[in-house]
Prior knowledge:
Elements: E1 2-8, E2 25-26, E3 29-30, H1 31-39, E4 46-51, H2 55-60, E5 67-71, H3 78-87, E6 98-103, H4 111-123, E7 128-134, E8 142-146, E9 152-156, H5 163-166, E10 170-179, H6 180-187, H7 201-210, E11 215-219, H8 232-252, E12 256-257, E13 264-265, E14 270-271, E15 276-277, E16 282-283, E17 288-289, E18 294-295, E19 300-301, E20 306-307, E21 312-315, E22 318-320, E23 323-324, E24 329-332, E25 335-337, E26 339-341, E27 346-347, E28 352-354, E29 364-366, E30 371-372, E31 377-379, E32 382-384, E33 389-390, E34 395-396, E35 407-409, E36 414-416
Parallel strand pairs: 1-4, 1-6, 4-5, 7-11, 12-15, 13-16, 14-17, 15-18, 16-19, 17-20, 18-21, 19-22, 20-23, 21-24, 22-25, 23-26, 24-27, 26-29, 27-30, 28-31, 29-32, 30-33, 31-34, 33-35
Antiparallel strand pairs: 2-3, 6-10, 7-10, 8-9, 8-10, 35-36
Helix pairs in contact: 3-7, 6-7
Amino acid sequence: MIVSVILAAGKGTRMHSDLPKVLHPLLGAPLLEHVLDSAEPLSPAQKVVVIGHARQHVQAAFPARGITWAVQDTQLGTAHAAHCGVEAILPVRDEDPHVLILNGDLPLVRPETLKALLDEHVRSEAKVSILTCDLQAPAGYGRVVRSKEGFVVGIVEEKDADASTKLIQEVNVGIYVFRLSVFKEFYKRIGRENAQGELYLTDVVVQAARAGRKVATFKVACEREVAQVNSRAELARASQLLRERILDNYMLEGISIDDPASTYIEKGVRIGLESRIYPFTVIHRGVEIGERCEVGPFAHLRSGTRIADGGSIGNFVEIKNSTVGIGTKVRHLAYVGDGEIGAHVNIGAGTIFANYDGKAKHKTVVKDGAFVGSGTVLVAPVTIGSGAVTGAGSVVLRNHDVADGDVVVGVPAKTIKRN
């Protein structure tokens, strides 16, 4: 049985923000969500998150994840934070479960890596296991010190390391697996005699090793996967790395992305087979795109957008909280907000869905087969009927619905007879 404990109590002073570090957005999701999602495939029996700074905001951001919240009122170090989390573990059938402890600022760790760490922990019958990595530039990380036989005998934090220790490239990443009893036993033995005057979680590992408890390691091959986020610059770099991973996955699934370097797609976007994303496109979390669609270039799809199969969204088009029906085209210089567009509709260049009246948002409906001429302004709430046509430059006023098959032109738009 496994229990996950995520350490998310820090303020993140290097972010220079009132927002807790773990709530800073990374491709549409808070940092903490990425870490939770990495541990989720391991099916932990209990998910504990240790919070401290602005904890009410952190709790409010995750109302439905089944989290047990543990509070670290005073930040006395990583071991103290882990202790707060361990104390929140509920009694379970397995009285000595495996406890996976993760830092909340590691959003790029893959579930496969966590599973490999846990598998090695179980296979080797270790009491403690740590995830390590060889870094080309290890500054800022705790160095893993090994004996001649290769056993872990120490983990030395950067501020406590001498010149020779700083040359070690194998570092502690900040992810551990403990037997619950082992953590509790050796947490009691550590002190605060270090450069920062804190209770280090790494000291719990060292105390266990010195007492003869088996300490195993699993080394992650790609250092990009264990990149920490402590500043806005590191957040931006993590965004680039995660975006590359997301785009690669889409392309492996049969979606064309012409220029990944200029394409921004957040976490949680669904794109159907054979769709094509052109350069300089921005797609936010919560967007769904059907099969055989085209999006871009220079398109902006905001949350709540649904594009049905065969839809075509062109250059300099922004769509927000709207549905676009099968085979519908919105090709040029248009804004569609709070809209419901049917199948096989043409939205002409420069069309605006004027959805906001200064106080509230309103809905525009364009039914199947309608043709909205270039430069049309649809003032919501309003409905354009099936097969209806608006002339170029028309302004259809609010509540002045256009009936099925009608043709309207002018400012304000008025019905004319079909020729």
